[in-house]
Amino acid sequence: MERNALLKFKEGLKDPSGRLSFWVGNYCCTWPGVGCNRQTRHVTKLDLRMPLANSFDSINIDPEAAAFASLQGTISPSLLDLKYLHYLDLSWNNFNQTPIPNFIGSFTKLEYLNLSYASFNGLVPPHLGNLSNLRYLDLSSLGEDYALVSDLNWILGLSSLKFLGLDGANLSFASTNWLPAINMLPSLMELHLASCSLYDIPTSLPIVNFSSIQVIDLSANHFNSKLPGWLFNISSLVVLDLSFNDFSGQIAPCLENLNNMSVLDLGYNDLSGPLPISIGNLSSLEILCLSYNQLNGTIPETIGQLKILSILDLTVNNWEGVVSRIHFLHLNNMESFFLSSVKEKSLRFDVGYDWIPPFSLYEILIGNCQMNPKFPIWLQTQKKLQVVHLTNVGISSYVPGWFWKLSPQLSILSLSANNLSGELPRSLKFPSNSAVDLSSNLFKGPIPLFSGVGELNLKNNLLSGPIPANFTDAMLHLESLVLSKNHFNGSIPSSINKLEHLTLLLLDNNELSGKIPIMNRLNQLYILDLSNNNLFGNIPSSLCSQSLVYLKLNGNNLYGNLSFLKNCTELGKLGLANNQLHGVIPR
Fold first, then answer.
1. Does pLDDT of 56 surpass 60?
2. What is the pTM of this model?
Protein backbone atom coordinates (compact mmCIF):
# COMPACT_ATOMS: atom_id res chain seq x y z
CA MET A 1 0.00 0.00 0.00
CA GLU A 2 2.74 2.47 0.93
CA ARG A 3 4.68 1.68 -2.25
CA ASN A 4 1.59 2.35 -4.37
CA ALA A 5 0.93 5.58 -2.47
CA LEU A 6 4.40 6.83 -3.29
CA LEU A 7 4.06 5.89 -6.96
CA LYS A 8 0.72 7.77 -7.21
CA PHE A 9 2.40 10.75 -5.55
CA LYS A 10 5.19 10.51 -8.15
CA GLU A 11 2.66 10.49 -11.00
CA GLY A 12 1.41 13.94 -9.99
CA LEU A 13 4.88 15.47 -10.15
CA LYS A 14 7.17 16.81 -12.82
CA ASP A 15 10.77 15.82 -12.15
CA PRO A 16 13.14 17.57 -14.60
CA SER A 17 16.33 16.22 -12.98
CA GLY A 18 15.00 12.65 -12.69
CA ARG A 19 15.40 12.43 -8.94
CA LEU A 20 12.47 10.05 -8.65
CA SER A 21 13.54 7.89 -11.58
CA PHE A 22 15.22 5.65 -9.00
CA TRP A 23 11.86 4.88 -7.42
CA VAL A 24 11.77 1.40 -8.91
CA GLY A 25 11.55 -2.09 -7.43
CA ASN A 26 9.26 -3.59 -4.86
CA TYR A 27 11.05 -2.41 -1.74
CA CYS A 28 10.35 1.32 -1.41
CA CYS A 29 12.45 1.72 1.75
CA THR A 30 15.59 1.89 -0.40
CA TRP A 31 14.24 4.64 -2.67
CA PRO A 32 16.01 8.03 -2.47
CA GLY A 33 14.31 10.31 0.04
CA VAL A 34 12.29 7.52 1.64
CA GLY A 35 13.02 6.31 5.16
CA CYS A 36 11.46 3.37 7.00
CA ASN A 37 11.32 2.02 10.52
CA ARG A 38 13.84 -0.83 10.75
CA GLN A 39 11.51 -3.11 12.70
CA THR A 40 8.11 -2.49 11.14
CA ARG A 41 9.34 -1.51 7.63
CA HIS A 42 6.64 1.19 7.52
CA VAL A 43 7.51 4.46 5.75
CA THR A 44 8.23 7.06 8.43
CA LYS A 45 10.21 9.65 6.49
CA LEU A 46 9.84 11.43 3.15
CA ASP A 47 12.66 13.91 2.55
CA LEU A 48 12.42 15.43 -0.95
CA ARG A 49 13.97 18.81 -0.19
CA MET A 50 15.46 20.29 -3.38
CA PRO A 51 19.10 19.09 -3.22
CA LEU A 52 20.74 22.44 -4.08
CA ALA A 53 19.07 23.99 -1.03
CA ASN A 54 21.45 22.10 1.20
CA SER A 55 24.11 24.67 0.33
CA PHE A 56 24.95 27.37 2.89
CA ASP A 57 23.35 30.23 0.94
CA SER A 58 20.19 28.69 -0.46
CA ILE A 59 18.51 31.99 -1.35
CA ASN A 60 21.19 32.78 -3.95
CA ILE A 61 20.89 29.52 -5.88
CA ASP A 62 21.07 29.97 -9.65
CA PRO A 63 17.40 30.11 -10.83
CA GLU A 64 17.94 27.82 -13.82
CA ALA A 65 19.72 25.22 -11.72
CA ALA A 66 16.98 25.46 -9.08
CA ALA A 67 14.22 25.00 -11.70
CA PHE A 68 15.96 21.89 -13.02
CA ALA A 69 16.45 20.37 -9.58
CA SER A 70 12.95 21.19 -8.25
CA LEU A 71 9.96 18.92 -8.16
CA GLN A 72 6.85 20.54 -9.63
CA GLY A 73 3.17 19.74 -9.86
CA THR A 74 0.60 18.78 -7.23
CA ILE A 75 0.75 16.76 -4.04
CA SER A 76 -1.43 13.68 -4.28
CA PRO A 77 -3.67 12.74 -1.33
CA SER A 78 -2.38 9.19 -1.84
CA LEU A 79 0.24 10.19 0.72
CA LEU A 80 -2.44 9.71 3.37
CA ASP A 81 -1.76 5.98 3.06
CA LEU A 82 1.60 6.67 4.75
CA LYS A 83 -0.08 6.33 8.13
CA TYR A 84 3.17 6.14 10.08
CA LEU A 85 4.81 9.21 8.54
CA HIS A 86 6.82 11.15 11.12
CA TYR A 87 8.89 13.37 8.84
CA LEU A 88 7.85 15.27 5.67
CA ASP A 89 10.15 17.71 3.87
CA LEU A 90 9.14 19.14 0.48
CA SER A 91 11.01 22.44 0.89
CA TRP A 92 12.59 24.49 -1.91
CA ASN A 93 10.59 22.78 -4.64
CA ASN A 94 8.08 24.51 -6.92
CA PHE A 95 4.40 23.78 -6.38
CA ASN A 96 3.31 26.64 -8.65
CA GLN A 97 1.63 28.89 -6.08
CA THR A 98 -0.94 26.25 -5.14
CA PRO A 99 -2.39 26.21 -1.60
CA ILE A 100 -1.01 23.89 1.04
CA PRO A 101 -3.31 20.83 0.84
CA ASN A 102 -5.81 20.52 3.69
CA PHE A 103 -5.09 16.82 4.05
CA ILE A 104 -1.60 17.61 5.38
CA GLY A 105 -3.38 18.17 8.68
CA SER A 106 -4.37 14.47 8.76
CA PHE A 107 -0.83 13.11 9.32
CA THR A 108 -1.41 12.79 13.04
CA LYS A 109 1.93 11.11 13.74
CA LEU A 110 3.91 13.85 12.00
CA GLU A 111 6.70 15.38 14.10
CA TYR A 112 8.57 17.29 11.37
CA LEU A 113 6.92 19.30 8.57
CA ASN A 114 8.94 21.54 6.25
CA LEU A 115 7.13 23.12 3.29
CA SER A 116 9.29 26.25 3.20
CA TYR A 117 10.20 28.12 0.01
CA ALA A 118 8.25 25.64 -2.11
CA SER A 119 6.01 28.17 -3.92
CA PHE A 120 2.91 27.46 -1.89
CA ASN A 121 0.38 30.26 -1.78
CA GLY A 122 -2.95 31.07 -0.22
CA LEU A 123 -4.44 30.43 3.19
CA VAL A 124 -2.56 28.17 5.59
CA PRO A 125 -5.05 25.42 6.46
CA PRO A 126 -6.09 25.58 10.14
CA HIS A 127 -6.19 21.77 9.96
CA LEU A 128 -2.46 21.89 10.70
CA GLY A 129 -3.51 22.44 14.29
CA ASN A 130 -4.45 18.73 14.39
CA LEU A 131 -0.76 17.76 14.24
CA SER A 132 -0.43 17.51 18.00
CA ASN A 133 2.87 15.63 17.80
CA LEU A 134 4.55 18.25 15.62
CA ARG A 135 7.85 19.57 16.91
CA TYR A 136 9.14 21.32 13.78
CA LEU A 137 6.99 23.43 11.43
CA ASP A 138 8.45 25.62 8.67
CA LEU A 139 6.14 27.34 6.17
CA SER A 140 8.48 30.20 5.29
CA SER A 141 8.18 31.78 1.85
CA LEU A 142 9.76 34.32 -0.49
CA GLY A 143 8.41 37.12 -2.65
CA GLU A 144 4.98 36.59 -4.18
CA ASP A 145 4.82 32.99 -3.00
CA TYR A 146 3.54 33.77 0.45
CA ALA A 147 1.27 31.91 2.81
CA LEU A 148 -1.64 33.83 4.31
CA VAL A 149 -2.44 33.30 7.97
CA SER A 150 -5.82 34.69 9.01
CA ASP A 151 -5.24 33.87 12.67
CA LEU A 152 -2.91 31.70 14.72
CA ASN A 153 -5.44 30.06 17.01
CA TRP A 154 -4.88 26.73 15.27
CA ILE A 155 -1.35 26.75 16.58
CA LEU A 156 -2.67 26.15 20.12
CA GLY A 157 -2.99 22.46 19.20
CA LEU A 158 0.77 22.20 18.64
CA SER A 159 1.78 22.11 22.28
CA SER A 160 4.98 20.12 21.54
CA LEU A 161 6.27 22.58 18.92
CA LYS A 162 9.94 23.51 19.28
CA PHE A 163 10.53 25.27 15.93
CA LEU A 164 8.12 27.61 14.14
CA GLY A 165 9.16 29.21 10.85
CA LEU A 166 6.75 31.57 9.11
CA ASP A 167 9.23 33.99 7.53
CA GLY A 168 7.60 35.83 4.63
CA ALA A 169 4.07 34.69 5.47
CA ASN A 170 1.37 37.35 5.58
CA LEU A 171 0.24 37.61 9.20
CA SER A 172 -1.33 41.07 8.90
CA PHE A 173 -4.79 39.69 9.75
CA ALA A 174 -3.35 38.03 12.85
CA SER A 175 -1.24 40.98 13.91
CA THR A 176 -3.22 41.77 17.08
CA ASN A 177 -3.43 38.23 18.48
CA TRP A 178 -0.29 36.48 17.25
CA LEU A 179 1.66 36.80 20.49
CA PRO A 180 -0.97 35.34 22.88
CA ALA A 181 -1.12 32.26 20.63
CA ILE A 182 2.67 31.92 20.43
CA ASN A 183 2.90 32.41 24.18
CA MET A 184 0.90 29.19 24.67
CA LEU A 185 3.74 27.06 23.25
CA PRO A 186 5.79 26.17 26.34
CA SER A 187 8.33 24.02 24.44
CA LEU A 188 9.10 26.57 21.72
CA MET A 189 12.82 27.08 21.13
CA GLU A 190 12.92 28.92 17.80
CA LEU A 191 10.49 31.54 16.46
CA HIS A 192 11.04 32.92 12.95
CA LEU A 193 8.54 35.62 11.96
CA ALA A 194 10.62 37.86 9.69
CA SER A 195 8.80 39.90 7.01
CA CYS A 196 5.34 38.85 8.19
CA SER A 197 3.57 42.25 7.95
CA LEU A 198 3.13 42.33 11.72
CA TYR A 199 2.49 45.75 13.23
CA ASP A 200 1.45 45.13 16.81
CA ILE A 201 3.52 43.86 19.73
CA PRO A 202 2.82 44.53 23.40
CA THR A 203 5.53 46.41 25.26
CA SER A 204 4.88 44.25 28.31
CA LEU A 205 4.10 40.57 28.73
CA PRO A 206 3.38 39.63 32.37
CA ILE A 207 4.01 35.91 31.87
CA VAL A 208 6.38 34.52 29.27
CA ASN A 209 5.43 30.86 28.81
CA PHE A 210 8.08 30.06 26.19
CA SER A 211 10.79 30.35 28.81
CA SER A 212 13.13 27.95 26.98
CA ILE A 213 13.15 29.88 23.71
CA GLN A 214 16.58 30.43 22.16
CA VAL A 215 15.87 32.21 18.85
CA ILE A 216 13.44 35.07 18.18
CA ASP A 217 13.50 36.67 14.74
CA LEU A 218 10.94 39.46 14.26
CA SER A 219 12.94 41.41 11.68
CA ALA A 220 11.49 43.40 8.77
CA ASN A 221 7.99 43.90 10.16
CA HIS A 222 6.08 47.13 10.82
CA PHE A 223 6.33 47.41 14.59
CA ASN A 224 6.03 51.06 15.58
CA SER A 225 6.27 51.05 19.34
CA LYS A 226 8.68 51.23 22.21
CA LEU A 227 11.26 48.44 22.32
CA PRO A 228 9.55 45.64 24.30
CA GLY A 229 11.42 45.32 27.57
CA TRP A 230 10.15 41.80 28.27
CA LEU A 231 12.25 40.42 25.42
CA PHE A 232 15.39 41.36 27.33
CA ASN A 233 14.31 39.34 30.37
CA ILE A 234 14.34 35.96 28.62
CA SER A 235 17.56 34.46 29.91
CA SER A 236 17.51 31.51 27.51
CA LEU A 237 17.79 33.73 24.40
CA VAL A 238 20.72 33.03 22.08
CA VAL A 239 19.55 35.01 19.02
CA LEU A 240 17.37 38.13 19.06
CA ASP A 241 16.77 39.88 15.74
CA LEU A 242 14.51 42.94 15.79
CA SER A 243 16.15 44.71 12.84
CA PHE A 244 14.32 46.64 10.10
CA ASN A 245 11.38 47.77 12.18
CA ASP A 246 10.37 51.12 13.69
CA PHE A 247 11.09 50.40 17.34
CA SER A 248 11.79 53.51 19.40
CA GLY A 249 12.88 54.18 22.96
CA GLN A 250 16.04 53.12 24.73
CA ILE A 251 17.83 49.83 25.15
CA ALA A 252 17.16 48.40 28.61
CA PRO A 253 19.95 49.51 30.98
CA CYS A 254 20.25 46.08 32.61
CA LEU A 255 21.25 43.30 30.22
CA GLU A 256 22.62 40.87 32.81
CA ASN A 257 19.91 38.31 32.03
CA LEU A 258 21.24 37.75 28.52
CA ASN A 259 24.33 35.72 29.36
CA ASN A 260 23.54 33.21 26.62
CA MET A 261 23.02 35.83 23.91
CA SER A 262 25.14 35.13 20.82
CA VAL A 263 23.44 37.41 18.25
CA LEU A 264 21.78 40.74 19.03
CA ASP A 265 20.56 42.70 16.00
CA LEU A 266 18.67 45.93 16.64
CA GLY A 267 19.76 47.64 13.42
CA TYR A 268 17.53 49.85 11.27
CA ASN A 269 15.17 51.09 13.95
CA ASP A 270 14.67 54.43 15.71
CA LEU A 271 16.30 53.66 19.04
CA SER A 272 17.76 56.54 21.02
CA GLY A 273 19.71 57.17 24.19
CA PRO A 274 23.03 55.66 25.22
CA LEU A 275 24.32 52.15 24.73
CA PRO A 276 24.20 50.66 28.25
CA ILE A 277 27.47 49.94 30.04
CA SER A 278 26.01 46.51 30.82
CA ILE A 279 26.56 45.50 27.18
CA GLY A 280 29.96 44.31 28.36
CA ASN A 281 28.27 41.60 30.45
CA LEU A 282 27.02 39.69 27.39
CA SER A 283 29.97 37.33 27.51
CA SER A 284 28.57 34.98 24.84
CA LEU A 285 27.96 37.71 22.27
CA GLU A 286 29.38 37.02 18.80
CA ILE A 287 27.37 39.47 16.66
CA LEU A 288 26.23 42.92 17.77
CA CYS A 289 24.45 45.14 15.23
CA LEU A 290 23.08 48.54 16.25
CA SER A 291 23.38 50.32 12.89
CA TYR A 292 20.98 52.98 11.59
CA ASN A 293 19.45 54.15 14.84
CA GLN A 294 19.57 57.40 16.84
CA LEU A 295 21.79 56.11 19.64
CA ASN A 296 23.88 58.86 21.19
CA GLY A 297 26.49 59.57 23.79
CA THR A 298 29.80 57.82 24.11
CA ILE A 299 30.40 54.21 23.19
CA PRO A 300 31.03 52.36 26.47
CA GLU A 301 34.54 50.98 26.95
CA THR A 302 32.97 47.79 28.36
CA ILE A 303 32.37 46.70 24.77
CA GLY A 304 36.04 45.68 24.82
CA GLN A 305 35.15 42.89 27.27
CA LEU A 306 33.23 40.88 24.64
CA LYS A 307 35.95 38.31 24.10
CA ILE A 308 34.26 36.19 21.43
CA LEU A 309 32.66 39.04 19.46
CA SER A 310 33.24 38.57 15.72
CA ILE A 311 30.99 41.25 14.14
CA LEU A 312 30.48 44.73 15.60
CA ASP A 313 28.31 47.18 13.64
CA LEU A 314 27.83 50.63 15.16
CA THR A 315 27.31 52.62 11.94
CA VAL A 316 24.99 55.61 11.41
CA ASN A 317 24.18 56.70 14.95
CA ASN A 318 24.77 59.95 16.85
CA TRP A 319 27.91 58.86 18.65
CA GLU A 320 30.31 61.33 20.20
CA GLY A 321 33.47 61.22 22.28
CA VAL A 322 36.51 59.04 21.73
CA VAL A 323 36.99 55.43 20.65
CA SER A 324 40.32 54.25 22.05
CA ARG A 325 42.37 51.09 22.39
CA ILE A 326 40.40 50.17 25.51
CA HIS A 327 37.31 49.61 23.36
CA PHE A 328 39.16 46.76 21.62
CA LEU A 329 41.08 45.40 24.59
CA HIS A 330 39.84 41.79 24.44
CA LEU A 331 38.27 41.67 20.97
CA ASN A 332 40.68 39.01 19.76
CA ASN A 333 38.06 37.28 17.61
CA MET A 334 36.63 40.29 15.82
CA GLU A 335 36.54 39.89 12.03
CA SER A 336 34.18 42.71 10.97
CA PHE A 337 34.16 46.21 12.46
CA PHE A 338 31.83 49.00 11.32
CA LEU A 339 31.68 52.46 12.93
CA SER A 340 30.29 55.83 11.87
CA SER A 341 28.46 58.80 13.35
CA VAL A 342 25.82 61.01 11.78
CA LYS A 343 27.13 64.04 13.66
CA GLU A 344 29.94 65.62 11.66
CA LYS A 345 33.29 64.86 13.34
CA SER A 346 31.66 64.43 16.78
CA LEU A 347 33.42 61.07 17.15
CA ARG A 348 37.18 60.62 17.33
CA PHE A 349 38.90 57.33 16.57
CA ASP A 350 42.15 57.60 18.53
CA VAL A 351 44.09 54.38 18.99
CA GLY A 352 47.55 55.82 18.47
CA TYR A 353 49.81 55.61 15.47
CA ASP A 354 51.75 52.55 16.69
CA TRP A 355 48.76 50.48 17.84
CA ILE A 356 48.90 46.72 17.30
CA PRO A 357 45.29 45.47 17.29
CA PRO A 358 44.39 42.18 19.00
CA PHE A 359 42.19 41.12 16.05
CA SER A 360 42.58 40.19 12.39
CA LEU A 361 39.82 41.77 10.32
CA TYR A 362 38.19 40.79 7.06
CA GLU A 363 36.10 43.96 6.94
CA ILE A 364 36.56 47.46 8.32
CA LEU A 365 34.35 50.51 7.89
CA ILE A 366 35.09 53.79 9.67
CA GLY A 367 33.19 56.81 8.41
CA ASN A 368 32.46 60.40 9.28
CA CYS A 369 34.68 60.56 12.32
CA GLN A 370 38.13 61.99 13.04
CA MET A 371 41.18 59.76 12.72
CA ASN A 372 44.86 60.61 12.84
CA PRO A 373 45.81 62.62 9.71
CA LYS A 374 48.52 60.06 8.94
CA PHE A 375 47.47 56.92 7.10
CA PRO A 376 46.78 54.26 9.81
CA ILE A 377 49.91 52.13 9.90
CA TRP A 378 48.17 49.59 12.14
CA LEU A 379 46.26 48.39 9.07
CA GLN A 380 49.55 46.80 8.03
CA THR A 381 48.91 44.14 10.69
CA GLN A 382 45.59 43.17 9.07
CA LYS A 383 46.59 40.48 6.59
CA LYS A 384 43.08 39.14 5.80
CA LEU A 385 41.36 42.37 4.74
CA GLN A 386 38.80 42.07 1.97
CA VAL A 387 36.71 45.21 2.58
CA VAL A 388 38.16 48.61 3.56
CA HIS A 389 36.02 51.73 4.01
CA LEU A 390 37.80 54.75 5.49
CA THR A 391 35.48 57.55 4.37
CA ASN A 392 35.57 61.16 5.56
CA VAL A 393 37.92 60.42 8.44
CA GLY A 394 40.38 63.28 7.99
CA ILE A 395 43.40 61.39 6.62
CA SER A 396 45.59 63.92 4.82
CA SER A 397 48.74 61.99 3.93
CA TYR A 398 49.72 59.82 1.00
CA VAL A 399 48.75 56.15 0.72
CA PRO A 400 51.79 53.98 1.53
CA GLY A 401 52.98 51.35 -0.93
CA TRP A 402 52.36 48.46 1.45
CA PHE A 403 48.64 49.27 1.41
CA TRP A 404 48.34 49.13 -2.38
CA LYS A 405 49.87 45.66 -2.24
CA LEU A 406 46.62 44.48 -0.59
CA SER A 407 44.66 45.21 -3.80
CA PRO A 408 44.50 41.57 -5.03
CA GLN A 409 42.42 40.67 -1.95
CA LEU A 410 40.20 43.79 -1.67
CA SER A 411 36.72 43.30 -3.09
CA ILE A 412 35.67 46.72 -1.77
CA LEU A 413 37.98 49.71 -1.26
CA SER A 414 36.69 53.15 -0.34
CA LEU A 415 38.99 55.97 0.77
CA SER A 416 36.66 58.76 -0.36
CA ALA A 417 36.22 62.23 1.13
CA ASN A 418 39.66 62.56 2.68
CA ASN A 419 42.66 64.69 1.71
CA LEU A 420 44.83 61.89 0.39
CA SER A 421 47.49 63.05 -2.03
CA GLY A 422 50.19 61.77 -4.36
CA GLU A 423 49.94 59.79 -7.55
CA LEU A 424 47.92 56.64 -7.81
CA PRO A 425 49.74 53.46 -8.90
CA ARG A 426 49.70 53.16 -12.70
CA SER A 427 48.26 49.66 -12.49
CA LEU A 428 46.82 47.41 -9.81
CA LYS A 429 45.02 44.08 -9.85
CA PHE A 430 41.79 43.70 -7.90
CA PRO A 431 39.46 40.71 -7.50
CA SER A 432 36.82 40.26 -10.19
CA ASN A 433 33.91 42.76 -9.98
CA SER A 434 35.43 44.66 -7.06
CA ALA A 435 34.38 48.22 -6.18
CA VAL A 436 36.95 51.02 -5.79
CA ASP A 437 36.00 54.52 -4.59
CA LEU A 438 38.82 57.06 -4.27
CA SER A 439 36.65 60.12 -4.90
CA SER A 440 37.00 63.55 -3.27
CA ASN A 441 40.71 63.48 -2.52
CA LEU A 442 43.79 65.23 -3.90
CA PHE A 443 45.18 62.43 -6.05
CA LYS A 444 47.00 63.61 -9.16
CA GLY A 445 48.62 62.09 -12.23
CA PRO A 446 47.16 59.97 -15.04
CA ILE A 447 44.19 57.68 -14.84
CA PRO A 448 45.19 54.33 -13.27
CA LEU A 449 44.53 50.93 -14.81
CA PHE A 450 42.84 48.84 -12.14
CA SER A 451 42.14 45.41 -13.62
CA GLY A 452 39.26 43.38 -12.23
CA VAL A 453 37.16 46.30 -10.99
CA GLY A 454 33.44 46.42 -11.67
CA GLU A 455 32.90 49.88 -10.15
CA LEU A 456 35.45 52.70 -10.23
CA ASN A 457 34.89 56.17 -8.77
CA LEU A 458 37.71 58.74 -9.10
CA LYS A 459 35.45 61.80 -8.97
CA ASN A 460 36.68 65.14 -7.63
CA ASN A 461 40.45 64.70 -7.67
CA LEU A 462 43.33 66.38 -9.51
CA LEU A 463 43.84 63.64 -12.08
CA SER A 464 44.87 64.77 -15.55
CA GLY A 465 46.00 63.70 -19.01
CA PRO A 466 44.15 61.75 -21.67
CA ILE A 467 42.07 58.64 -21.16
CA PRO A 468 44.24 56.04 -22.92
CA ALA A 469 42.76 53.70 -25.51
CA ASN A 470 43.96 50.63 -23.61
CA PHE A 471 42.11 51.81 -20.51
CA THR A 472 39.15 49.59 -21.36
CA ASP A 473 41.28 46.50 -22.00
CA ALA A 474 42.24 46.37 -18.34
CA MET A 475 38.66 46.87 -17.12
CA LEU A 476 36.38 45.16 -19.62
CA HIS A 477 33.83 44.23 -16.95
CA LEU A 478 33.24 47.76 -15.65
CA GLU A 479 29.64 48.42 -14.70
CA SER A 480 30.15 51.89 -13.23
CA LEU A 481 32.79 54.48 -14.20
CA VAL A 482 32.87 57.92 -12.54
CA LEU A 483 35.66 60.32 -13.57
CA SER A 484 33.81 63.61 -12.95
CA LYS A 485 35.50 66.82 -11.75
CA ASN A 486 39.09 66.12 -12.73
CA HIS A 487 41.34 67.57 -15.42
CA PHE A 488 41.23 64.84 -18.04
CA ASN A 489 41.81 66.10 -21.57
CA GLY A 490 41.95 64.72 -25.09
CA SER A 491 39.15 62.78 -26.70
CA ILE A 492 36.96 60.06 -25.28
CA PRO A 493 38.53 56.88 -26.70
CA SER A 494 36.41 54.88 -29.11
CA SER A 495 37.35 51.81 -27.09
CA ILE A 496 34.78 52.94 -24.50
CA ASN A 497 32.33 51.05 -26.71
CA LYS A 498 33.90 47.80 -25.51
CA LEU A 499 32.48 48.26 -22.01
CA GLU A 500 29.30 46.33 -22.74
CA HIS A 501 28.41 45.87 -19.05
CA LEU A 502 28.48 49.61 -18.33
CA THR A 503 25.35 50.99 -16.65
CA LEU A 504 26.77 54.30 -15.34
CA LEU A 505 29.25 56.60 -17.12
CA LEU A 506 30.06 60.03 -15.67
CA LEU A 507 32.80 62.07 -17.43
CA ASP A 508 31.40 65.52 -16.67
CA ASN A 509 33.38 68.60 -15.59
CA ASN A 510 36.67 67.71 -17.25
CA GLU A 511 38.55 69.17 -20.23
CA LEU A 512 37.66 66.50 -22.75
CA SER A 513 37.48 67.49 -26.40
CA GLY A 514 36.75 65.90 -29.78
CA LYS A 515 33.61 64.10 -30.88
CA ILE A 516 31.40 61.80 -28.88
CA PRO A 517 32.39 58.27 -29.95
CA ILE A 518 29.98 55.58 -31.09
CA MET A 519 28.47 53.78 -28.09
CA ASN A 520 26.11 51.40 -29.83
CA ARG A 521 27.27 48.39 -27.79
CA LEU A 522 26.48 49.97 -24.43
CA ASN A 523 22.99 48.50 -24.30
CA GLN A 524 22.82 48.45 -20.50
CA LEU A 525 23.81 52.10 -20.01
CA TYR A 526 21.13 54.01 -18.10
CA ILE A 527 23.03 57.09 -16.84
CA LEU A 528 25.38 59.12 -19.07
CA ASP A 529 26.85 62.51 -18.15
CA LEU A 530 29.33 64.22 -20.51
CA SER A 531 28.41 67.78 -19.48
CA ASN A 532 30.79 70.71 -19.04
CA ASN A 533 33.59 69.58 -21.31
CA ASN A 534 34.81 70.82 -24.72
CA LEU A 535 33.15 68.19 -26.89
CA PHE A 536 32.05 69.21 -30.38
CA GLY A 537 30.40 67.82 -33.50
CA ASN A 538 27.18 65.96 -34.12
CA ILE A 539 25.70 63.69 -31.51
CA PRO A 540 25.77 60.05 -32.74
CA SER A 541 22.30 58.66 -33.41
CA SER A 542 23.36 55.50 -31.57
CA LEU A 543 23.91 57.39 -28.31
CA CYS A 544 20.47 56.54 -26.97
CA SER A 545 19.95 52.96 -25.95
CA GLN A 546 16.63 51.51 -24.89
CA SER A 547 17.76 51.62 -21.26
CA LEU A 548 19.04 55.24 -21.03
CA VAL A 549 17.06 57.22 -18.43
CA TYR A 550 19.50 60.07 -17.65
CA LEU A 551 21.45 62.05 -20.27
CA LYS A 552 23.39 65.27 -19.72
CA LEU A 553 25.36 66.88 -22.56
CA ASN A 554 25.07 70.54 -21.53
CA GLY A 555 28.03 72.89 -21.49
CA ASN A 556 29.82 71.64 -24.63
CA ASN A 557 30.14 72.76 -28.26
CA LEU A 558 27.85 70.16 -29.78
CA TYR A 559 25.78 71.00 -32.81
CA GLY A 560 23.23 69.40 -35.10
CA ASN A 561 19.66 68.22 -34.98
CA LEU A 562 17.88 66.77 -31.97
CA SER A 563 16.52 63.88 -34.02
CA PHE A 564 18.91 61.51 -32.23
CA LEU A 565 16.54 61.70 -29.25
CA LYS A 566 13.86 59.68 -31.04
CA ASN A 567 15.57 56.53 -29.78
CA CYS A 568 15.65 57.78 -26.19
CA THR A 569 12.27 56.32 -25.26
CA GLU A 570 12.93 55.92 -21.52
CA LEU A 571 14.59 59.28 -20.75
CA GLY A 572 13.51 60.92 -17.50
CA LYS A 573 16.29 63.51 -17.19
CA LEU A 574 17.81 65.46 -20.11
CA GLY A 575 20.36 68.29 -20.16
CA LEU A 576 21.29 69.94 -23.49
CA ALA A 577 21.80 73.62 -22.60
CA ASN A 578 24.77 75.71 -23.78
CA ASN A 579 25.34 73.87 -27.04
CA GLN A 580 24.44 74.72 -30.65
CA LEU A 581 21.66 72.18 -31.11
CA HIS A 582 18.47 72.82 -33.03
CA GLY A 583 15.20 71.11 -33.75
CA VAL A 584 12.34 69.83 -31.63
CA ILE A 585 12.69 67.34 -28.81
CA PRO A 586 10.64 64.30 -29.88
CA ARG A 587 7.74 63.42 -27.63
1. no
2. 0.93
